[in-house]
Amino acid sequence: MIGKLNHVAIAVPDLAAAARTYREVLGAQVSQPLPQPAHGVTVVFVQLDNTKIELLHPLGDASPIRAFLDKNPSGGMHHVCYEVADILAARDRLKAAGARVLGDGEPKIGAHDKPVLFLHPKDFDGTLVELEQQ
Prior knowledge:
The chain is of the alpha+beta class. The chain has a single domain (2-133), classed as 2,3-Dihydroxybiphenyl 1,2-Dioxygenase, domain 1 (Roll), CATH 3.10.180. Helices cover 22% and strands 37% of the residues. Strands 1, 2, 3, 4, 5, 6, 7, 8 and 9 form a nine-stranded mixed sheet that branches. The longest helix is centred in the N-terminal third of the chain and has 11 residues, at 15-25.
């Protein structure tokens, strides 16, 4: 059902410093910061040969990333995102297997302008999972 790894999202307390580390220390191709007001984050995409890293920083006090950084002041892995061919079929199969879909269970448009869903971390060994339709 799941396809390739689309990205790993890392919450960071200092977006400019994190982007600089990936660009200057690791030699990666790094995007400019992209505010995503609908998601309460500013994102920097780090392009790798086989996937992406998504650096997340809170955009406003109501950001879901703010609460994560309050618990993890140094930052850390926030979620992994897997691609799926049909997000509704994937959702239905996962729910039938007992997995919990966060929110109202309906896909939202994510930072990559594609439908996404998030799955409860307690159902996936403590990892927040995002599914993105390709």
